[in-house]
Design goal:
It is a single chain. With 283 residues, the chain is mainly beta. It has two domains: 126 residues, Roll (Pnp Oxidase, Chain A), CATH 2.30.110; 131 residues, predicted glycosyltransferase like domains (Thrombin, subunit H, Beta Barrel). The protein has two helices and 14 strands, in the order αββββββββββββββα. Strands 1-2-3-7-6-5 form a six-stranded antiparallel barrel. The chain has a six-stranded antiparallel beta barrel with strand order 9-10-11-14-13-12. Strand 10 and strand 11 form a beta hairpin. The longest helix has 23 residues. The protein is globular, with a radius of gyration of 21 Å.
Length: 283
């Protein structure tokens, strides 16, 4: 930026409501159950964040329970051992939106009643008249509906420099979604924000980072000037040499849909991405 150039102003305006109202929440859940919509289930365990694929197979009439197929690991093909009371995150597509909610497992034994209490019957009936592949989860208290365009990456506006610091993720610390405490273990890598979306970011670094694709790390950055830093669990997606003796490092945010705090962070990311996009359009 030359001395005569000034940074493009960025106006951070909230993007819609954090949660949809309960009537729309119920409409979305019931419609997804009728359509057997594919879902992604996210959980945190001893080996970190894991994601699984599943689909809606039922929802009861009184709006207390939703059934999904037994989740499967998209890569390894295995099914997780879910525990009753375990908190998980659910995400799925609906038109031009992505819907997310956090919930708990209420029945991990794979039994969906077929006695008329379900608004939508499940898939294959077992010998006892109940679906042998279904897992019951609690009807969500809140549901978040995000425009899918916030998952399209945008570059920071002209003159808007955002430094990104990467820390190791200690599995014994559990999920990290609050920015009040700087992660322990020292800095792994530093770079500048190259692009951002609600799903991840890419940095430009001067040195090759000491991690590989798939590693779980903690990202810390302050996209709002003077604002509180965002601190997010992330998975390394790529480490590639870039022009100018630099390194392009991509990260995917993980686990945001599993807690209310994480969903608030996701809403903030959507606000920032939209602000960057509007600033770019103004030039």
């Amino acid at each position: 930026m030359t001395p005569t150039q000034t940074p493009t102003p960025v106006l951070f305006e909230p993007v819609g409501q954090l949660w949809v109202d309960h009537a729309r929440r119920d409409e979305i859940i019931r419609d997804a159950a009728v359509r057997h919509t594919d879902v992604q289930l996210t959980r945190y365990g001893g080996s970190g964040w894991k994601t699984y694929v599943s689909r809606f197979v039922g929802a009861n009439k009184d709006g207390t329970v939703v059934w999904i197929d037994a989740p499967m690991n998209d890569a390894a093909g295995g099914s997780p051992t879910l525990r009753v009371g375990e908190q998980v995150g659910i995400s799925f597509r609906r038109g031009r939106c992505k819907c997310l909610f956090t919930t708990t497992v209420t029945d991990a034994d794979g039994l969906q009643p077929q006695d008329g209490s379900a608004a939508v019957p499940g898939g294959t009936d077992g010998a006892d008249g109940r679906d042998a592949e279904a897992v019951a989860i609690r009807w969500p208290e809140n549901l978040q509906e995000m425009q899918r365009r916030v998952y399209q990456r945008v570059t920071p506006p002209h003159g808007h420099v955002v430094n990104v610091t990467v820390y190791p993720h200690c599995l014994t610390d559990g999920p990290v979604q609050a920015a009040g405490v700087v992660p322990r273990g020292g800095v792994l890598s530093e770079g500048r924000l190259a692009n951002l979306s609600a799903g991840g970011l890419c940095t430009s670094a001067t040195e090759k980072p000491p991690f590989r694709d798939g590693d779980l790390v903690i990202i810390r950055f302050s996209p709002r000037p003077g604002g509180e830093p965002l601190q997010l669990d992330s998975r390394v997606r790529h480490v590639m040499a870039a022009p100018g003796n630099r390194w392009s490092v991509g990260f995917q945010f993980v686990g945001l849909e599993t807690t209310t705090t994480g969903q608030c962070r996701l809403a903030e990311l959507a606000t920032i991405v939209s602000a960057f996009r509007r600033a770019a359009a103004r030039g």
